[in-house]
Amino acid sequence: MRVSAMVIGILFSIWTFFEALLITGLSNAADDDETSSAGAGGLIAAVVAGVASMLVLALPLFSAVTFVVAGLISFAAAAAGYSNHWFYGSIFIVLGVMAFFGWIGKRKERRENQLERLRQVERDNRMETLMRQQRDEVRYPAAGQQTSLGGRNHAALATVDNATKIAIANLLDPDEDARFAVSGSNATLIGADRSLILIPSGRKGFKNQVQAAYAAVTNVRVETARKGGTLRFDVDGQTHEIVLANQVQVDQGTEAVRLLRQITRRAGAVAVEPPINAQVAQVTFPNFCPSCKHRNEHGVKFCAECGTTMIPTPAH
User: Fold this and answer.
1) Which of 170, 206, 209, 177 is nearest to 192 (CA)?
2) Same domain (yes/no): 8, 68
3) Is the pLDDT of residue 270 over 60?
4) Any residues with CB less than 8 A from the CB of 55 and at least 6 apart, and which?
5) Are 228 and 245 in contact (CB under 8 A)?
6) Which of 108, 138, 164 is the last residue of a domain?
7) What secondary structure does DSSP assign to 21-62, as a single string?
């Protein structure tokens, strides 16, 4: 609506401007003061309509009022003897109405964007809650037992998107947690307690994920550039990289390299041994989400579509 008002308004403003300029010039040459005054009114209406056309995208309500003013000026010029402006004035009034409805549409779009941001925040909070429950509590449906895992470091995943969080939660054991995370422009690197996980960007990136034991990780380094840098590491002779687009990501990558070098130097290349008393129930997970009915990969603990916990059942 606003784009149409802008295009039509610009075309009619140019047309009426040059027509009024011609009428004014010819009237002055013929010493016709009445027609000359009407032509001057047409010039003013054309300029006002042109201003309204230029502002209709950014300030549609102001543009609507300005179009109406241009229409009234055109009607005044028409009453003074410039009859074409009865038509032009009507067009400007119609453009004002279009700009007004464009303003209503813009307000609606702004409200929808605000609601979408609120819904996104709610989804993020829900995902954090689901992951916290998965880390802090392991439920055993058969015996009704509940074991506390003592609340580990969830802050490492604060900058990771929901799809990646779901993929990570499905990969980690119940007593395992993320120690650090590096979010690059092409992938996310997660340092878990017992393995290193590389998940490419995108909603389906988890299908191409790379998970490697720390014993297989070598040659970890960050190569900085003028803007950003690259974190590289080798797994069984194959080089993987995370593109670091800004200084924040470079700082995350540098800290991750420091931690990785410490971990891989340890005997057995295991960052954190599992607790002696940790007991992991033997359970199976359904393929279909109980909430949205999405069909998931076999054995996932969270739905890849909506993040709902997949309720496990005892394995037989």
Assistant:
1) 177
2) yes
3) no
4) 62, 63, 66
5) yes
6) 108
7) HHHHHHHHHTT-HHHHHHHHHHHHHHHHHHHHHHHTTT-HHH
Question: Which one is predicted more confidently, 174 or 60?
Answer: 60
| Three-point CA angle 158, 228, 177, nearest 5° | 25
pLDDT band for 137, please (50, 70, 90 cuts).
very low
Least confident of 100-104, 229-233, 277-281: 277-281
Tokens standing for residue 73: 């000026």
**How far, in Å, CA of 188 to CA of 201, rounded?**
7
- Strand, helix or coil at 82? coil
Q: What stretches of 149-267 adopt beta strand conformation (E)?
A: 178-183, 187-192, 195-200, 210-213, 217-224, 229-235, 238-244
| Residue-number span of the structural domain to which 257 is assigned | 154-276
pLDDT value, residue 26: 78
Of 169, 171, 208, nearest in space to 187 by CA: 208
> pLDDT at residue 238 above 80?
yes
Percent of residues, the chain, with pLDDT higher than 90: 2
Domain end among 71, 86, 108: 108
If you search the block for the tokens 């950014």, which residue do you land on?
58
Q: Are residues 35 and 74 in the same domain?
A: yes
